[in-house]
Amino acid sequence: MHVKVPASIANLGPGFDVLAMAVDLWLEVEAEPAGRPDWEFEGEGAELLRGAPNPLSGLPMQGWVRNAIPVGVGLGSSAAARVAAATLGGSEDPIGEAGREEGHYDNVAAAVVGGVVAVVGDEVQRLPIPDLELAVLLAADPLSTEAARAALPAQVERADAVFNLARVASLVHLLHNRDWHRLNVALEDRLHQPLRIPLYPW
Question: Which domain holds residue 162?
Fold first, then answer.
């Protein structure tokens, strides 16, 4: 079996846990059933994957994993691995299975569906793909999803929620109408970005 899963960027602008997009970096797996797990890892995070349990390491298969997705920097490496494992395991609902394990569905939805997506309850809605080039700035050091989410409060101010709702609506409008001159405003956020800036002091 051959499985190829893209990286993803979630929490696009104001769309915390809702908006995500696939990125042209890939986790690639070639595998066949085996009596016990026997994997070869290469690429990004290979030493970590060899030395610690991961979504693929427990599957009764043998094969190789080639990963081009940087680990721990917000590009959905764990989501890609969970989607690959669910697919290799024959899941009929890789988004649901991988999303439950991940704890949120935006990265896995983008990894399975591709392009730009909105997660609305248990539905994944496709959005237009922007005709823009993407530049990705990577953090100098990895940061776990758990640490990033721990920086966020359990409740938010109404004014901040309204601020983000307005910009999510604006961002969806821009994606449909290619009205890029207001993209900087549509990407503004008050729910997660300001609270996570101290986690990246460099």
Answer: 145-199
How many folded domains does the chain comprise? 2
pLDDT grade, residue 202 (50/70/90)? Answer: low
Copy the structure tokens of residue 114. Answer: 């591709």
pTM: 0.90
Instruction: Please report, for the domain that includes residue 11, its CATH number.
Output: 3.30.230.10
Pairing assessment for the beta strands 116-120 and 19-33 based on DSSP bridges: antiparallel
Q: Do residues 20 and 11 make contact, with C-beta atoms less than 8 angstroms apart? A: yes
What does the alpha-carbon distance between residue 31 and residue 20 come to, in Å, rounded to a whole number?
28
Distances, alpha carbon 179 to alpha carbons 13, 98, 116, 172, 174, in Å: 16, 34, 16, 10, 5
Shared domain for 57 and 116, answered yes or no, is yes
- How many Å separate Cα 69 from the centre of its chain? 11
In angstroms, the first-to-last Cα distance of the chain is: 42
Q: Report which secondary-structure segment, H or E, holds 166.
A: helix 158-177
Three-state secondary structure call for residue 20: strand
The amino acid sitting at 114 is G
Cβ–Cβ < 8 Å for 166, 16: no
Two structure tokens written together for 48: 């970590």
Same domain, 16 and 94: yes
Instruction: Indicate the SS3 state at residue 41.
Output: strand
> pLDDT digits over 105-156, tens only?
999 999 999 999 999 998 999 999 998 898 888 888 888 888 889 999 999 9
Examine residue 135 and state whether it is found in any structural domain, yes or no: no
Asked whether residue 137 is domain-assigned, the answer is: no
